[in-house]
Amino acid sequence: MTTAQEEDTRRLRDLAERAGRELEEASAPEILQWAARTFGRRFCVTSSMEDAVVAHLASRAMPGVDVVFLDTGYHFEETIGTRDAVEAVMDVNVLTVTPARTVAEQDAEHGPALHDRDPDLCCFLRKVEPLERGLRDFDAWATGLRRDESPSRADTPVVAWDDKRRKVKISPIARWTQDDVDAYVTEHGVLTNPLLTDGYASIGCAPCTRRVLEGEDARAGRWAGRGKTECGLHG
Ligand code: SF4
């Protein structure tokens, strides 16, 4: 890394740490207005297309905001349909990022159903590495992480330094509850994935996602029975 790059990294890290303290009590629109002001086109949103809440909030702060979507090749058709609808009707620019290899090429190299045998490697190849590429042109990215989703997300900061990617990571709805999300969706008519009304509380790739049972937390249906709770995008 050159001295100029090191300087830039230090500046972004300091900025993230200060904003994390100052914006802890700020509303989601305030956090996203700060992001739009601070980073301009170097800011993007990532979306799993479970719903378009953060994309909607961000598009109000910055019309035409870039929305990065990782098309793993294993999504439910409802998820791809939600991505298409978001692209068609919202004031955002959807950037679809694909893994280096198709599912067929991955099967040829690693054997079929890698998600059953080594889900960490599968997530790395189909999510983690593509995200690094998808975020290459940005200094800051916003996610839809919420503290109430699962114990592993209970300490999610609203703004933090993402040391792995050397970028500012923003979670504008970290303090929201599911009720807050539902109220925002209803009030603004925000697009949601139809699977949310079919028993799925958190939606990832089809082979690794099941409906949740009564009393389970929202992410209990992800990699159920495989001892895995996160894909590596947020670890
Ligand atoms: Fe592979 Fe499952 Fe991870 Fe999707 S969620 S990338 S199918 S292991």
From TrEMBL:
It is found in: Cytoplasm. Keywords: Cytoplasm, Iron, Iron-sulfur, Metal-binding, Oxidoreductase. Pfam families: PAPS_reduct. Its EC number is 1.8.4.10. One of its GO terms (molecular function) is 4 iron, 4 sulfur cluster binding. One of its GO terms (biological process) is sulfate assimilation, phosphoadenylyl sulfate reduction by phosphoadenylyl-sulfate reductase (thioredoxin). [4Fe-4S] cluster binds at C122, C123, C205, C208. Gene3D superfamilies: HUPs (3.40.50.620). CDD domains: PAPS_reductase. Pathway: Sulfur metabolism; hydrogen sulfide biosynthesis; sulfite from sulfate. The active site is at C231. One of its GO terms (cellular component) is cytoplasm. Residues 48-210 form the Phosphoadenosine phosphosulphate reductase domain. Signal peptide: none annotated. SUPFAM superfamilies: Adenine nucleotide alpha hydrolases-like. Coiled coil: none annotated. Its cofactor is [4Fe-4S] cluster. Binds 1 [4Fe-4S] cluster per subunit. It catalyses: [thioredoxin]-disulfide + sulfite + AMP + 2 H(+) = adenosine 5'-phosphosulfate + [thioredoxin]-dithiol. PANTHER family: PHOSPHOADENOSINE PHOSPHOSULFATE REDUCTASE. NCBIfam families: cysH (TIGR00434), PRK02090.1 (NF002537). Catalyzes the formation of sulfite from adenosine 5'-phosphosulfate (APS) using thioredoxin as an electron donor. Belongs to the PAPS reductase family. CysH subfamily. This is Adenosine 5'-phosphosulfate reductase. It comes from Streptomyces cadmiisoli.
